[in-house]
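Hello Y.,

Per our agreement to keep a running log of every chain we model this quarter, I'm adding this entry. I've kept the format consistent with earlier entries: sequence first, then predicted structure.
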Amino acid sequence: MRSPISITAFAAINFLLIGLAAAATEVADSSASRCCGALESAFPSKTLSSNNEAESQDYQTAVLSYFSMQDRLRPNCFVQPTSTKDVSKIVGLLSKKSCRFAVKSGGHGLPVGASNIDEGVTIDLSQMKDVKLSADRKIAAVQPGAKWIDVYSTLDAQGYAVPGGRAGGVGVGGLITGGLLTVVPSTGVVLGNGTVVQANNQTNPDLFTALKGSSNNLGIVTRFDIIAFKQGNLWGGVASYDGKRVRKHIEAFVKFTDSLAQYPESSLIFIWSYIKAEDTFLFNNLYEYTGNVEGLSESKFPSPAFDEFAPTSPVGSPISSTLRVANLSSLTGELNSPPELSNLFASITFSNNLTVLNGVADIINEEINQIKKEDFYVYLSFQIQPLPRVFVDRGLEQGPNMLVFLFNLAWNGTQYDAKVRQVAGQVIGRLQKYTRSMGALKEFQYLNYAFEDLDPIGSYGPDNVRKIKDVSAKYDPLRVFQKLVPGGFKLADAGQKAPLPGSV
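Predicted structure for the entry above:
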């Protein structure tokens, strides 16, 4: 029989383990400090160090630029390139010295660490924000550090627009590489060894395809050539409704989604919110209409797609409204989330079906009644937006209209992070189980909304995951973006995560 370990020996082992952990931290910190030293030598005016008192204000500004409180990590330094050449040199240097790093566009991405890092270097692209419309007005060349409000404001002044984010404060780079690359016919990419390549349907087409939804796994995109089109003012805004008529809203929303093949210029996102401080349920409908608005009054709904939400409909009149005729930058400028809060996103995708959505509402009601008893949050919302057949690839054309469902929790500080994660896992697990039992759940997970305990890249299917991994091996043979960029959803985890508790 093995003799029990003595208290003295146990204490000695603990002391040794603590010492090893401290030594490892010191080594990591020392390595990151050397990396920052090399960057300060190469880019003295573009590197912000946490150890440099003279730069402390700029460094703190960079930390505070992140959307969510829990992502305001403290890297050993930020480096802020202003050109593709800078990015190329920075990545080459970090790769050669085996420096851990993160890449930030607008700083809106979750989960924690997707665009920031402790004990490492953060490449902050915020100084790369040029927006240029081509001479033929067909393409807008946009740098990744721009926010969508920068893009829309620049193009509004010229009578043009591009497809993009619904909230002006979100960064271009993360949103597009998380799934919007279908509207981008060409890109410029910095690879793991610092090489700059073009990626489009003719040049490096395998890389171009793999970039769609692969986030930070393959390289840093430093230029997006986005399809541009002529666009004047739009009709839209936010209409808020009393939270008691949920069934009427759901019925109207399902009909709206099924009408989009006939009225593709119409847009609606449905947000069901609970505001803790006011103990209030609220429905916010985000309307937009991109068709002809000449002579349109602000109070009149411009498309038959919106008939189910007219003031005379069972949904009723809104209790407040910002509906108006305005340009795109105005409409997207009002949709930013409250600052100075921690946030969590979690999402699933399922078929647009009245019975299914009513069942989802039942689960939401039950979960809200439990969550509202807690003290850890400021507000929570359930957002549903259509993903209709008319908007997706022809390969999906015979399938049903789909809905992307987003659960967003916001809270103060970071002390409740684990609790929030547990709650989100429970809610999404229940919704997965229910929608799967109804034959409505779709495996696809939109990466920009994905819950950190789920597997959005794996949801693309084994064949697509294999193709992305093959592209990674071809264009990043040293696995720089796998080994040195630890944050976000990584290829190594694709298809490997266990299901959420209660989801099967």
